[in-house]
Structures are given as structure tokens and as C-alpha cells.
Specification:
388 residues; alpha/beta; 7-stranded mixed beta sheet; 4-stranded antiparallel beta sheet
């Protein structure tokens, strides 16, 4: 594998990656190419590694305190998105984005209330909501994997029937499709939610992973979104899933709700995690830009490879995230093509059925790896069809 100092996605060989002990690399046998879990095949960004090494050298491994994380995100948001909505006094540190989602939903809904999602969507949305004794209602994405106002209007009406409280759990940018919702779409959503009395909670963990030329719009920045909550983290963009820390951000009209967050929630994140995330946001911009450039190249590479080797697979390069959503229904592999690609091709992907309505017959592929790995994965997937 050619070494490319400028592209973090080409810095590590497959042999080096297989030394890792994380879930992505140890769930399947060594002969499987793991392109399933959302971990990146990159070294830790140098500013982040330096901050962690310095903390260890100082023995700075105690309890976290202060607003440094929020202030770092504020500076990042102003520079990248032109948004000044990360006000430290309206933030709370939470263990990670999904646990933060659960805590925000607890603030604005009760047992038996409905939480609306738009599938196909990040699989943990379903069990996390159900395990907190809320009902999941689906308002599927519409054409082009965009938000569907008609579906949202109908399901919001159902969700609040009988005077019940309800929430909408939005994924932005959307996982698995890579859709980056526009300002117009988000403004229309806020209007619908306010009209029906539905509170919005937004998972924006992939927000930094939007390339130059595509505009990410924070949900809290659009008109009418002041009563919503956003969950953000540096974990996806800087490969920090093992260093847990995230921020819950309240809109101006949700400040009093956030103040009711139980004190013990802030005990989940570790001090080293907060140090890592803060360093990434403050000093990791150049590294992130290199990753975004590499991901753009990988998106185009995958399109070329599929056109040559798997022309019946439908694929639209994602606007954001490092995930590819592949429509494999024309291959005749049934509802779970990922199982076929694993068994016959030794490539691990996530089956689309896990993402809810609209997911059957699809697979999700992680593009945060080297071009060589993507090329080999598509070669194996094509060969798997010949072994049928």
C-alpha cells in the first residue's frame, strides 16, 4: 500500500490495522475486510495525540471540569459553519451522542410517548428509544433520500394525538444515506414540529464530515428551532470513539429544559476524552481537511469501481459522512446482501434491513479507509456474485 503523508487514510498498512483490538478489527476473522463499523483507518491526529501524551505525562487523569470543550466547539462552529449558537451556558457534557440523545428525549417526553424517526436511519435509534419505554414511529425519507414533509406532517399528527408529548429524532447529516439537509428543509421541519408541538432532538455527530463545496446547516441555526437540542462530538471526524465525550446543546428556548438534566449524567465522560475532543476541535482542522480530501477521492473511486465491476448496484456519492449506501436489490441477493458478501466474498458490511423501512436489499459501506482496501472490497464483492 503506497504511503501518503498528506492523506491520513493512506498512512497505515492493512497489517498495521489488523493489530488493532477494537470492534471493527476483532469482530470478524482475519481474512475478512471489515468495512462495516464506523471507525476510521487512520492514525490519531498529531495535535490530539500530543494532548493525550502531555496529559499522561502530567498525571492529568482525574475528573473533568470547565467549559473548554464547549468553547472549542464554539470556535470550530464559527469558523466552519458561520454559526455562533454553541453558547457554553446552554451546553452540557454527556458520555456520548446516543446517551445524550436518550437524556434529551427524557427531558421532553415520558413513558409511552412517541419518538419519530426517518428511516432508513442509524440502527441504534430503534433500540435506544424502545428501551426507554417510548414508541418509535416512522416517517420514512422521500425521493432522493430527502426529508418528506408530507410523511412528517402525518406522523407528527399521529404522535401527538390525545394530547401526548412527542419528539422527532433527526440524523443530520443523515446516516446511512449521507444526505446533508438544506436550510430550507430544516426550516420547513422546524415549522412542522412547532405547529404540532413536537420537540426536535438532532444527532449531528457527522457534522464536521461535510466536504468543501457542501454546506452543513446546524439545526439550531434555522428559524423556529430554538426549542430543540443538538448532540455533537468530535468522535466520528477524528476517530475518537474510544475516548468518549459529547456535548448536548440547547436552543435558547430549551435552556430551562436542559437545566433539569440530572447531575449524574455528566459523570459518564472521561477527562482524557474531553481533552482529546477539545484538542481535535481547536487544533485538528488541517488534519480534518486532509481526511475530507481523501474521502472525496474515495467517493469517486467507489463510483468508478461499481460502474466497472458491479454496474447493477445503485450508488449516489454521499454529500456528507464517510458512509456509502448501496442499493443491491437488482443483484437478486434478497433482503440481506451483506450476508452474501460476507460469506462468499469475505467483506463485512452492515445489512440495510437494520436501518428500518427502506433498508432491505441495501448495504452500508465505510469509506474511511485506503483506496486499496476499497478496491479489494469491490473486487471481492463482484467475485461473490460469480460464486453464487
Amino acid at each position: 500500500m503506497p504511503y501518503d503523508e498528506k492523506n491520513p487514510l493512506r498512512r497505515l498498512s492493512l497489517d498495521e490495522l489488523r493489530l488493532r483490538t477494537s470492534a471493527k478489527w476483532r469482530t470478524y476473522p482475519p481474512d475478512v475486510l471489515p468495512l462495516w463499523l464506523a471507525e476510521m483507518d487512520v492514525p490519531v491526529a498529531e495535535p490530539v495525540a500530543r494532548a493525550l501524551v502531555d496529559a499522561i505525562a502530567l498525571g492529568d487523569t482525574g475528573y473533568p471540569v470547565g467549559t473548554g470543550y464547549a468553547k472549542a466547539l464554539d470556535a470550530f462552529a464559527r469558523e466552519r459553519w458561520g454559526w455562533d449558537g454553541v453558547v457554553a451556558e446552554r451546553t452540557a457534557i454527556v458520555p456520548d451522542v446516543m446517551l445524550g440523545v436518550v437524556e434529551m428525549l427524557k427531558l421532553v417526553t415520558g413513558p409511552g410517548d412517541a419518538v419519530v424517526v426517518s428511516p432508513p436511519v442509524y440502527p441504534p435509534f430503534f433500540p435506544f428509544v424502545k428501551n426507554m419505554d417510548r414508541r418509535v414511529l416512522e416517517a420514512p425519507l422521500g425521493d432522493g433520500h430527502r426529508l418528506d414533509p408530507a410523511a412528517l406532517r402525518e406522523v407528527f399528527r399521529t404522535a401527538v394525538a390525545g394530547g401526548r408529548r412527542a419528539a422527532y429524532l433527526l440524523c443530520s447529516p443523515h446516516n446511512p444515506t449521507g444526505t446533508v439537509h438544506t436550510a430550507e428543509e430544516l426550516t420547513a421541519l422546524a415549522e412542522l414540529a412547532n405547529h404540532h408541538g413536537v420537540r426536535v432532538v438532532v444527532d449531528e455527530i457527522h457534522a464536521p464530515l461535510v466536504p468543501l463545496g457542501t454546506r452543513f446547516v446546524p439545526y439550531l441555526s434555522v428559524p423556529g428551532a430554538g426549542g430543540a437540542f443538538s448532540l455533537m462530538s468530535a468522535s466520528k471526524a477524528w476517530h475518537l470513539a474510544g475516548l468518549k465525550a459529547a456535548l448536548a446543546i440547547a436552543g435558547p428556548a430549551a435552556t430551562d429544559d436542559l437545566a433539569r438534566l440530572p447531575y449524574e449524567v455528566s459523570h459518564g465522560p472521561g477527562h482524557l476524552g474531553i481533552i482529546a475532543h477539545t484538542a481535535a476541535l481547536r487544533y485538528g482542522g488541517e488534519w480534518l481537511d486532509a481526511v475530507l480530501t481523501g474521502l472525496d477521492e474515495n467517493r469517486r473511486l467507489l463510483a468508478d469501481l461499481l460502474a466497472r465491476h458491479l454496474p447493477d448496484v445503485r450508488y449516489t456519492p454521499p454529500e456528507g459522512t464517510y458512509l456509502a449506501w448501496l442499493d443491491c436489490r437488482a443483484l437478486g441477493l434478497g433482503d440481506d446482501p451483506a450476508a452474501v458478501f460476507l460469506e462468499r466474498g469475505r467483506v463485512a458490511l452492515i445489512g440495510g434491513a437494520d436501518f428500518g423501512t427502506g433498508g432491505a436489499g441495501h448495504v452500508r459501506m465505510n469509506l474511511a479507509t485506503s483506496p486499496e482496501v476499497i478496491t479489494e472490497a469491490v473486487r471481492r464483492m463482484a467475485a461473490a456474485l460469480d460464486r453464487g
